[in-house]
Amino acid sequence: MKLIIMFSILLCISCNKESKTVKKSEDKFTSKDTVTTSSSNTIPKKIFFNELFREVTVEKITANKFRVKGEGQIFEANFGWVVEDGHNELKSGFEQTDAGAPKWGKFDFSFEVSKSNENSTLTLILFETSAEDGSRKHELPISLL
Q1: How far is Cα 14 from Cα 4, in angstroms, rounded to an integer?
Q2: What pLDDT shows up at residue 91?
Q3: Are 36 and 23 in contact (CB under 8 A)?
């Protein structure tokens, strides 16, 4: 009876583990979500994407400074970004990729932002601005931890 219980526990534990494939040349781990590690920053970074943005990473440089890198397939290579805390827009701006659609252009920018409330969670949102009405299209939200 003890053997059956121990076998059942072992089976449950082994089934709950997530398998990851390691690419040694790039130090990337591949699973359902792709995660990379950085030698300069011990905090793991996820790679974010949607239909207009890909290979987007955010690196926390200091307590209030972040670096955003990635690629975008954006009309006229211009896109906007905003940092929100769930209630207010704390910082916003516009950036450019090095190529416009249909090509994928690279971008790399940094910004500094401070929380207005210590218990809030900051979210960076990358987006394309609609030429028709100025609204945000294809938003890519990224939580800043």
Answers
A1: 15
A2: 97
A3: no
